[in-house]
Every structure is written in structure tokens, then in C-alpha cells.
Amino acid sequence: MKIHEAFAYLRVKQADRAIEYYKHVFGATEKLRLTEPSGRIGHAELDFGATIVMLSEEYPELDILGPQSIGRTSVSIHLHVDDADALIDRAVAAGGTLVRPPADHFYGERSGTVRDPFGHEWLIGHSIEAVTPDEMQRRYTALMKG
Question: By CB distance 3.0 to 4.6 Å, which of 34, 54, 64, 73 could disulfide with 9?
Fold first, then answer.
């Protein structure tokens, strides 16, 4: 069995607002939206350029809940971009919460984390240097020894 693709599938309250946030902040384009007669969004697909992110409203009756309802998230979506600082600023200005400010890291990336208004966390970074796996391990070991 070959896996052809993997998609992040977000569960949110107010999916219409989340779609607009992701379009405004990340430049995503909406490919598909399936809306129930009640107005609840059952499925949407957003094109982030290099990948598709899917999302839907919460379905409490099916135990499909998002971070706002469960009180946290254990997943971060990593976006590798041209300018992490600028995108983090944009995400915060649009209503996101800064979790970790941008900083240079041992693995050759400058990155920071934003929690969007719907509870999902986005690790946003850009490359600052090429680091071999061996050098990355050396740096990581040194960092953990403290």
C-alpha cells in the first residue's frame, strides 16, 4: 500500500471565519467548500501553494471537536516561507496569538509559533543556513547538555 499524499485536516468553530483568516494571512486559495443547508461547512479545501489543508466545522454529535472545544492542540503545522518574521507579524495583526517569537535555531532555521484565533498552532520558519544531519545532531546534543 503506497501513501500518495497526507493532508492536515483542521476542525474549527466558525469555519467561514477560519477560511477567511487563512486566505488573508497565508494567501491560501479556496478550492472547494461543501455547505449544509443550515450553513455549517462540512468540508473545505484550501490551497496553500505547496499543499492542501482541509477543514470543517466541528461536529459535536460525531465527537469531531477543535482546539477551542477541547481547550488545546497537540499539533503544530509547519509552514516554510520566505520571511518568517513578516508572516508571523501578519498572523498576529490579523488576530493570532504569538506563542514563540521568531528566533534563529540550531537546525538552520529562523522560526516562531502563532496560535490562530481558532486554536491551531502554526510554526512558521525560513532557512538561514544549510545544516547537515551530523552537524544538526552535534548542535542538538550540545544544546541538550546545556
Answer: 54
Strand-by-strand arrangement of the 8-12 sheet: 8-12, 52-57, 41-47, 29-35
Cα–Cα distance, 17 to 4 (Å, whole number): 30
10 Å CB burial of residue 11 (0-12, 13-18, 19+) is buried
CA angle 104, 112, 55 (to 5 degrees): 145
For 76, the 3-state DSSP assignment is: strand
> HEC string of 38-58?
CCCEEEEEEECCCCEEEEEEC
Q: For residue range 16-72, what is the model confidence (pLDDT) as tens digits?
A: 999 999 999 999 999 999 999 999 999 999 999 989 999 999 999 999 999 999 999
Asked if 91 and 122 count as a contact pair (C-beta separation under 8 A), the reply is yes
